[in-house]
């Protein structure tokens, strides 16, 4: 039996294995597997028991009642808020609510008598004219009038809210900055 080819094969396999150890580690780019193993061996090992003890200690200190006040655990709610009634209405529903709010009931003076028939309403009932994109004499339907009033009121509410926030910001700036006085000469 000739041992030379077997020894050569063994030498070749051992050199391939040594070369494989020196290839870069995919987890740590730029380091070989052997160097990466040596570095991780010198690092302190993670002990979950020690970490849990420190976390428990901090939690116990935070949860201790101060002055007899019982503290409840903190909760973070990340659910969307429930929409209000106005957000759930359709466009026609919003128009109906706006008309009842701003123009009065359907049998009242404004909608029931004075504006029972509008030019736009009559225009839309004529078969050929309702397809034309023009509005006769710039008139509006009751729904459009109510929507316009509603939009105007909403813009006014938003403006007043912003002005209130601005006034609060100015008030806090006045109280936060002490008044500077010039020293007497």
Write structural notes for this entry.
With 185 residues, the chain is mainly α. It has a domain at 90-174. The protein has helices at residues 4-21, 33-42, 48-63, 85-88, 91-103, 109-114, 119-125, 142-176. Helix 5 (91-103) crosses helix 8 (142-176). The longest helix is centred in the C-terminal third of the chain and has 35 residues, at 142-176. It starts with a helix and ends in a 9-residue tail after the last helix. The mean pLDDT is 75.
Radius of gyration: 40 Å
Overall pLDDT level: 75
Global morphology = elongated
Number of helices: 8
Number of strands: 0
Query: Helical amount among residues, as a percent range?
Result: 55-70%
Low-pLDDT residue spans: none
Cα(first) to Cα(last) distance is 115 Å
Name the beta content range: under 5%
Structural class, from helix and strand content? mainly alpha
Q: Describe the main β-sheet briefly.
A: none
**Helix-strand pattern, N to C?**
HHHHHHHH
